[in-house]
Amino acid sequence: MNKDMQQYLDKAEVLIEALPYIQRFNRKIIVVKYGGSAMVDEELKARVIQDVTLLKLVGFKPIIVHGGGKEISRWVGKVDMKPEFKNGLRVTDEATMELAEMVLGKVNKSLVQLVESLGVRAIGISGKDGRLLSVKKKYANGEDIGFVGDVTNVNADILYDLLEKDFLPIICPVGLDDDNNTYNINADDAACAIAKAMKAEKLAFLTDIEGVYKDPQDSSTLISELTVSEAHKLVGDGYIGGGMLPKINNCIEAIESGVSRVHILDGRIPHCLLLEIFTNKGIGTAILNDSERRYYDGE
Ligand SMILES: Nc1ncnc2c1ncn2[C@@H]1O[C@H](COP(=O)(O)OP(=O)(O)O)[C@@H](O)[C@H]1O
Ligand SMILES: CC(=O)N[C@@H](CCC(=O)OP(=O)(O)O)C(=O)O
């Protein structure tokens, strides 16, 4: 067989390998939390959006919840303010809130534009629109961190309507409290709340690290499967810090609320989402129910 023919056959094999996954996830809701470095690098950004668009075109129902923390910090720096975080959450005073909403709005529309350019209908909305995300004030270990919101309700009907009309919803993590004040929501929190409310089949967090490490300084300690109990223990023992903290807490909450598959993926790996969904090769860290534990080398 010549080389060209072998290449075509290899491509066909890849498609065949994807078949059971296409069947399994057909018409299922997949929430993709998109943040970290994969958002800043234009090439990676285009690839992530291409992947989500492909998921849509093969019959899945993806919903993107995006972050933009790095971009917000860049703009906060530009006006000579200092970004400040507590437990992975941005301390958000009125001025920071204004900037965050501007930046997240811009990120939102750039993602809509990318999806539209690939021929798929996208609608970008903030959690304020139709009161998609209602919030109450969130504290970091009892400390007041300003206009940071904890999601109290998701108006899921809006998203069901958009999915029904075949739109790809792209959601920006800003919400309203009962007094109609604007709140900044950590995008991991927003994605988890949406996945729970929509009874999503899968929740994937795309971030800028390989996955969860037992020791973040040592890449050989990457954990490929983490049960809820093990995740609690890692947090309790102080192995999880910074932005990984809200992510892990949300993974635990999502699994405990019935989302079947929760993953933390390295958004810097081109097409990580497709690799995770369409192949047997596990990448990143999968968070599992305690009863699903297969292998863990974290101790
Ligand atoms: N145990 C850990 N394993 C992996 N990452 C960790 C861990 N503890 C802290 N981190 C930090 O959490 C970061 C991921 O959070 P963050 O930067 O907020 O992601 P995103 O912007 O995608 O939401 C990693 O880049 C890493 O620096
Ligand atoms: C309250 C809070 O922390 N809000 C986040 C919202 C954006 C975000 O979560 O972005 P990433 O997912 O890219 O980190 C922030 O202001 O950075």
From TrEMBL:
Substrates-to-products reaction catalysed: N-acetyl-L-glutamate + ATP = N-acetyl-L-glutamyl 5-phosphate + ADP
Name under which the protein is recorded: Acetylglutamate kinase
Pathway given in the UniProt record: Amino-acid biosynthesis; L-arginine biosynthesis; N(2)-acetyl-L-ornithine from L-glutamate: step 2/4
Keyword 4Fe-4S: no
Lineage start: Bacteria, Bacillati, Bacillota, Clostridia, Lachnospirales
Keywords: Amino-acid biosynthesis, Arginine biosynthesis, ATP-binding, Cytoplasm, Kinase, Nucleotide-binding, Transferase
Site feature: Transition state stabilizer: 33, 247
GO MF terms, alphabetically ordered: acetylglutamate kinase activity; ATP binding
GO cellular component, one term: cytoplasm
Compartments, as annotated in UniProt: Cytoplasm
Functional description taken from the UniProt entry: Catalyzes the ATP-dependent phosphorylation of N-acetyl-L-glutamate.
Enzyme class, spelled out: transferase
HAMAP family: ArgB
Residues holding substrate: 68-69, 90, 184
